[in-house]
Amino acid sequence: MFEDKNTSKTPLVNLGEFKLIDHLTQSVKPQNKSTVLGIGDDAAIIDHSNNKTLISTDLLLEGIHFDLSYMPLKHLGYKAVMVNLSDLYAMNAKPTQITVSIAVSNRFTVEALEELYTGINLACKNYKVDLVGGDTTSSTSGLMLSLTAIGNATQDRIVKRSGAQEHDLLVVSGDLGAAYTGLQVLEREKAVFKVNPNSQPDLTSYSYSIERQLKPEARKDIIELLEELDIIPSSMIDISDGLSSEILHLSKSSEVGFHVFEEKLPLDPEVNLICEEFKFNTTTAALNGGEDYELLFTIAQKDFDKIKNHPLLSVIGHVTEKNMGCQLITGLGHQIELTAQGWQSFEGEKN
Amino acid sequence: MFEDKNTSKTPLVNLGEFKLIDHLTQSVKPQNKSTVLGIGDDAAIIDHSNNKTLISTDLLLEGIHFDLSYMPLKHLGYKAVMVNLSDLYAMNAKPTQITVSIAVSNRFTVEALEELYTGINLACKNYKVDLVGGDTTSSTSGLMLSLTAIGNATQDRIVKRSGAQEHDLLVVSGDLGAAYTGLQVLEREKAVFKVNPNSQPDLTSYSYSIERQLKPEARKDIIELLEELDIIPSSMIDISDGLSSEILHLSKSSEVGFHVFEEKLPLDPEVNLICEEFKFNTTTAALNGGEDYELLFTIAQKDFDKIKNHPLLSVIGHVTEKNMGCQLITGLGHQIELTAQGWQSFEGEKN
Hints:
- Two copies of one chain form a homodimer.
- With 351 residues, chain A is of the alpha+beta class.
- The first copy, chain A, has two domains: 12-157, CATH 3.30.1330.10; 169-350, PurM-like C-terminal domain (Phosphoribosyl-aminoimidazole Synthetase, Chain A, domain 2, Alpha-Beta Complex), CATH 3.90.650.
- Helices cover 34% and strands 22% of the residues of chain A.
- Chain A has eleven helices and 14 strands.
- In chain A, strand 1 (35-37) and strand 2 form a beta hairpin.
- Chain A is globular and about 65 Å long.
- The termini of chain A are far apart.
- Strand 2 (44-46) of chain A pairs antiparallel with strand 3 (52-61) of chain B, so a sheet runs across the interface.
């Protein structure tokens, strides 16, 4: 039953469900005043006083969302928390608590799960979020993570997907496409490793992209920056599935169209180099790569001066009437309609 | 890729993730004033005003927690919600919102997931809870459900596991063991069906037990009853893993011992009959069967008159000093120490 061959590791059966969760969460100490009761009862208790409570949940499965052959468990734990917190930042809210449920097969050892929780705990510490509960169960196949983030905000600061107005500016934080190029590099190294397990790849020239893929950061800093700059976006979303897909979400919820300018898309130089090496279109990586966990939002034109030339923010387009649809304006001035699933069909149109 | 052979059904690939969740949740309408924003944004928004927010989460996996060969998907959806709400009732809180995340393999059709959501929606309607979010993803093996329940209570009404005091009475709602005997009957029928797929079992004499296994109800009514009777338990937990295991949880959290009287354990007559048929000890079914989703709580002796002879409540024991441990007092007056895992080792001691 126990597949791990390393006998110095501790099989899960040695602990059992109740002891496992006690063991993994023994170092957890609440950091937020709003955490009235954390792990150890039927439910956690949270006091958000007069603020609104916000809640968001994510499900991450081995073989679908992550590949443990190049994703260290510590990074997986960290990233899982980032993915989850990112949704609350996308509402302009402050995450305060998370719950983490895991299903694991017997091929994982107690030490492996400790690694996972090291990443989870580090993320909680860095983002001042309390782990307040969860569920632990065995699985017949692989590792599954289910996270729920709870946060709060005052009513007047909450930003939904639905508030974009015609003529608003479309703004994105950071840069785009690097999580995707990082994934391409990792997938290639995995293929090389299968053929030659002794290969020692030099990945230094891909380090930014690989870090974006393996250890993304949720944009807490952007939420704090917006508050400092006294800006409340009219609509906002985080970029998990790709810029193109997220623009379509804002378009649908706000009932508006968008013009996005290809030449304004922020790209790290490394993304250009990797795209060249892999013979991949950089615009496609930026539009459809996904997993950037940047924030995409719209602001009123009157707020433009506040963000002009800010190194963390790029104005990439503006809001149009609904019936104009969502259009990418290329460097040559051509209009191409944005699609959600399809960088393939999109590629076809570009060629 | 698509394993379903019935061509009148709709394969999941026809919809895609975004449309699937839209499709399954299109009939969802908020019932609670506290649901400010439900499905469709990065996070749900909840307003619990000056009340405390409570949160609890559960992970349910095919092959571990449920067997679709005898668990209809509608019942599975209903039961998954009950399991989750039961945790909030166990805090003496009122559940108001849930999130439901699902991972499904391609062997499920859109119609199958509609069945699942029919059960989820019925549970939400019956318990006046709003479905406010979730995540949908594909799975490489089977069906997984992750639910998070959010609720609220005023600080003075919240009941933890940790408040039991020496001399308090130990009370349980409803009856015990029937979910377990129901499972035994269903497992037997599954085995019979494998040998003879044309068998037409008559299960009418097992109907209560089967219903307890397939369609349990969370004890909202007990929480309402306690309020009516003006009782705030000193500690409380719901019975998911079995009475014995839950008593040990209360013991650990409250740092007390318990005396439980075998002859006071409430049993439905059907449980006695099935136990006789299966040559199974009824006390073991009641103590270690699990999945009863009854509430187990302690009350001060001064509250005894309020619950005396109430048909829904049974006093089954009392709180002792910590160093006396958790003891079952048998009909013959013998003391047997309660254990969590082990009805096997326990059985050994009884024989």
